[in-house]
């Protein structure tokens, strides 16, 4: 008789070496869940102030968290099924994206992921829930840039600072390739908060952040300059899912039903609650264009 301890040890070593299966995010597919009348989905998120954060009582909330909860409530009410949701916080954006991409079944991801054609080849998206404005920033010691033609002299000695794996990194690469005659040093941060902190602390960097990050930083007293000539309002954010998810159609139904979710007063109130009146009005107006 083979020693059971030895079998267990071999199994453990095999799983560890192969990367295991515990890291794969999983949830019930819509077809399976609707047939059974109940099931569970997983919501993965990257913590972000205003969008997915812990409030003063330690409760998970934010624009995107509550949006997905509204979606689950819609499913429960319209289809009479019992959908439970579990949460998975993932600090690193690249890891978050990869894990949702590799997930199975009813897994949704929120980290203000920009909808692009390249990403559509790898993952599925909900309809857009926000029109983003990407904003070029520096320390406040650098005066506002008036023309890209002068950027090399204006940003003399400054280094690019990027959140690795994001479209802001790609935007900075294009900017330096198109307007700088010499190579520009690129440093990396692991969060938007780190970018804001480094740019505010010393006049060494230029970076791109989403306008809501800039807005909140200014209100918190950050010493940064926004260069409006660099504004880019071409991005839309969507909830992401594994490629080919059978939840995609239900998400579309949720967004397009009635007056439209992002056109609703409820959604406007959600933005104001978590982002503040002024920023919410700006972002809400963008979605109505």
Explain how this protein is built.
It contains 12 helices and 11 strands. With 289 residues, the chain is an alpha/beta fold. The protein folds into 2 domains: 23-130 and 235-288, D-Maltodextrin-Binding Protein, domain 2, CATH 3.40.190.10; 132-234, Periplasmic binding protein-like II (D-Maltodextrin-Binding Protein, domain 2, 3-Layer(aba) Sandwich), CATH 3.40.190.10. Strands 1, 4, 5, 6, 7, 8, 9, 10 and 11 form a 9-stranded mixed beta sheet that branches. A two-stranded antiparallel sheet has the order 2-3. A hairpin with a 5-residue loop joins strand 2 and strand 3. It starts with a helix and ends with a helix.
Index terms:
D-Maltodextrin-Binding Protein, domain 2, alpha/beta, single chain, 2 domains, 289 residues, 12 helices, two-stranded antiparallel ribbon, elongated, 42% helix, nine-stranded mixed β-sheet, disordered N terminus
Write the H/E string, N to C: HHEEEHEHEHEEHEHEHEHEHHH
The pLDDT mean sits at 90
CATH class of the largest domain, anyone?
A: Alpha Beta
- CATH architecture label name of the largest domain: 3-Layer(aba) Sandwich
Which topology of the largest domain does CATH recognise? D-Maltodextrin-Binding Protein, domain 2
Tell me roughly what share of residues is in helical segments.
40-55%
List the domain count as a whole number. 2
Shape: elongated
At the fourth CATH level, what is the homologous superfamily of the largest domain? Periplasmic binding protein-like II
Distance between the termini: 72 Å
Beta-strand content estimate: 25-35%
Task: Tell how many strands the DSSP assignment holds.
Answer: 11
Radius of gyration: 22 Å
Please work out how many helical segments DSSP would assign: 12
User: Biggest β-sheet: count, sense, barrel?
Assistant: 9 strands, mixed
Structural class comes to: alpha/beta
**Ranges with pLDDT <50 over ≥5 residues?**
1-21
């Amino acid at each position: 008789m083979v020693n059971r301890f030895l079998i267990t040890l071999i199994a453990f070593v095999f799983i560890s070496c192969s990367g295991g299966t515990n890291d794969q995010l999983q949830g019930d597919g819509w077809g399976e869940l609707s047939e059974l009348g109940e099931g569970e989905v997983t919501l993965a998120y990257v913590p972000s102030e205003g969008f997915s954060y812990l409030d003063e009582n330690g409760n998970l909330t934010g624009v995107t968290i509550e949006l997905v909860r509204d979606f689950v409530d819609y499913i429960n009410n319209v289809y009479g099924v019992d959908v439970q949701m579990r949460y998975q916080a993932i600090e690193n954006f690249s890891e978050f994206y990869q894990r949702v991409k590799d997930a199975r079944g009813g897994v949704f991801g929120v980290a203000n992921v920009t909808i692009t054609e390249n990403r559509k080849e790898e993952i599925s998206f909900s309809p857009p829930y926000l029109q983003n404005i990407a904003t070029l920033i520096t320390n406040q010691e650098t005066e506002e840039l008036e023309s890209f033609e002068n950027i090399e002299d204006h940003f003399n000695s400054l280094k690019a600072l990027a959140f690795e794996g994001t479209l802001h990194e790609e935007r900075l690469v294009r900017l330096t390739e198109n307007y700088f005659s010499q190579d520009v040093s690129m440093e990396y941060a692991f969060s938007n908060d780190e970018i804001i902190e480094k740019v505010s602390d010393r006049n060494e960097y230029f970076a791109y952040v989403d306008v809501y990050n800039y807005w909140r930083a200014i209100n918190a007293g950050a010493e940064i300059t926004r260069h409006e000539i660099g504004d880019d309002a071409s991005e839309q954010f969507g909830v992401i899912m594994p490629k080919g998810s059978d939840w995609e159609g239900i998400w579309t139904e949720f967004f397009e039903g009635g007056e439209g979710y992002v056109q609703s007063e409820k959604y406007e109130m959600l933005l104001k609650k978590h982002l503040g009146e002024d920023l919410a009005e700006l972002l809400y107006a963008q979605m109505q264009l």
